[in-house]
Structure prediction request, 133 residues.
Amino acid sequence: MQPSTPTRLVPVACPLLAVVSSGLKDITNIEADRKSIAELAFRDVDILLLPTTTATTPAIQDAGANPQALSAENTAFANYYGLPAVSVPCGFDSNGVPIGLQIVAKPWDEEAALILADRYQGATEWTRMQPIK
Prediction:
């Protein structure tokens, strides 16, 4: 049995991102947090779609000058909460640098994230395009 492909995308406020952006909780709360996350973030949705990074990829010299330039702000929550996630190419910024779409599924639903990533890549040309040189 395969999960159905979503036929519509509904923008929703994600309380999970608000929790993460306010700073990670005490390490002793990880298990309790992981148990409650499905109820909180996935109450009305099956998959979260968001940019892989908060900004486009900086030039090498800019990244070297600012350690936070390559922030994991949009991906850290998936690791913290043990959520299956995958990033796929979804376009290019104004400088021709690739940008990514992060697909995050409910706990223990790796299959849904991978199926959606595969279908997205099959339906778009981004994986076959080269960055501007």
